[in-house]
Every structure is written in structure tokens, then in C-alpha cells.
Design goal:
The protein is mostly helical. Helices cover 49% and strands 9% of the residues. The chain is built from nine helices and six strands. A two-stranded parallel sheet has the order 1-5. Strands 2-4 form a two-stranded parallel ribbon. α3 (56-70) packs across α9. The model has no long low-confidence stretch (mean pLDDT 88).
């Protein structure tokens, strides 16, 4: 939340700089309240899905795939291990956008139900880190996930990035009649997508090289053997 006038201008500037996207959204809301343009805010949680631009889930998918063979257990951040994780499946965002446009156009009553409103979008289930790793492993045919508890300053955490929550989606469910995809069904779909990306050597070459570089940076000295194992696994 952007700070009010009760704090110094310098403190306001520093806090705004920590989250420029949230600050921009709030400025848009203030413009609307001052008589500006109509808008709807869709708030998402920890995003995952096919072609998700941060490729965090792609990295996680491969780490889970390789972690037992390479003895690289999944990190459980000791400060987050009991934190419920809100997750947003990216195709569900498109569904919400469509619902908002329908109401804004009056195709399904009414503009006042969406203009100036904010809606939270997330899957209904909110797993903690260990359970989330287990869900990611299921479509990979893995019945066991090895984890290790690591202090925050040393842990590699791809999910969750957003730890405030969990999000309440009641307003989106009732007012937009939006329906999120079941979390485990969504994870199965995304796992199939990234396995296809890894196996289709005729496409996504540039994206794979970016992913490999990120893997090496993420895993440090274990990066080269991780990348070598992944290449060999999908070349078989």
C-alpha cells in the first residue's frame, strides 16, 4: 500500500520505488476517483502457466524433474514453510478479462459491477511449499520429493515470490462469476507444455538457451551438471 501524507516525502519516494507496479496501479485508481477514465484492477498472486515470461515455473519444473537424480533437494525456506501460497494460473487471467469486458459492454449486466472495482484472482487451493513441490512432481510421474530446510538468506525460492495473503477470491467468484481452474489440473497442463518445449528441437531454441543460462546462475556450481543432465534427459 502506498504511504499517505503522514510520512516524509523521502520515505514516500523510497516505498514507492520498492513496488513501482503497485504504485502505478494506485495512481490509476486515483485518476479514476478524480473523474478520469473507467478501469478495473485484476490482482494476481504467484503466477504460473505456459509462456509465463519470468520462466520461474519452467525452472521449477526442471529442478523437480532432476533433483533426485542429481541429489539436489528442493529448498524449503524456513521462514515460509508454513505459509499458504496463493497461485494464479495465467489462462484464468484471460477468462477474468473476458468477464470484465462482457460486463463493461453491458452484454452481461452491468458496467457499475466492474468500473472502479478490484478483483483478486487465484486458484482455490493454497498449498505450502512442500505440498506445492509434490503437486508439481505428480504429472512428472514422481511419487516422492526430497526437500531440505534452508535459511532465507541461502535458500533458492522460485515460489512463492508474493508471500502476503492468501488472497480472497470471493468477489471475483460472485461478482464476475469467474471460475478458477483446479490447481492440480492446471499444473498438469503446464507440465505437458514445458515437456513439449524441451522435446521440440525445431522450436524455442532461443528460449531454452535463456532458461539454461538462468539455471546455471540459479544453481551456481551445480549449474553445469544440472544443464548437462537436462539436455541428456530430453535428448533420449
Amino acid at each position: 500500500v502506498r504511504p499517505g501524507r503522514e510520512v516524509s516525502p523521502l520515505e514516500r519516494y523510497e516505498l514507492k520505488g520498492r513496488n513501482p507496479k503497485a504504485n502505478a496501479i494506485l495512481e490509476a485508481a486515483q485518476q479514476y476517483n478524480a473523474g478520469g477514465f473507467p478501469f478495473t484492477v485484476l490482482r494476481i498472486a504467484n503466477a504460473f502457466g505456459p509462456k509465463e515470461t519470468s520462466i520461474r515455473f519452467w525452472l521449477l519444473h526442471l529442478w523437480v524433474r532432476a533433483h533426485i537424480a542429481l541429489r539436489l533437494p528442493m529448498h524449503v525456506d524456513t521462514s515460509l514453510e508454513r505459509t499458504p501460497m496463493s497461485l494464479t494460473y495465467t489462462p484464468d487471467i484471460a477468462q477474468a478479462v473476458y468477464k470484465v469486458i462482457e460486463k463493461a459492454r453491458g452484454e452481461e449486466c452491468c458496467l457499475e459491477h466492474v468500473a472502479g472495482h478490484a478483483f483478486n484472482l487465484a486458484c482455490e487451493e493454497m498449498p505450502h511449499q512442500r505440498r506445492f513441490y509434490e503437486y508439481v512432481a505428480e504429472p512428472l510421474g514422481m511419487s516422492y520429493v526430497e526437500t531440505v530446510e534452508v535459511e532465507s538468506n541461502r535458500s533458492i525460492v522460485l515460489y512463492p515470490e508474493i508471500v502476503r495473503g492468501p488472497l480472497s477470491t470471493t468477489k471475483a467468484l460472485e461478482q464476475l462469476r469467474w471460475a478458477p481452474t483446479d490447481l492440480r489440473k492446471a499444473l498438469r497442463s503446464v507440465a505437458r507444455f514445458y515437456d513439449r518445449v524441451m522435446m521440440d528441437q525445431s522450436r524455442f531454441k532461443g528460449e531454452r538457451e535463456v532458461m539454461y543460462r538462468k539455471c546455471q546462475k540459479m544453481l551456481g556450481e551445480d549449474g553445469p551438471r544440472f544443464v548437462s543432465w537436462v539436455r541428456d534427459f530430453y535428448d533420449e
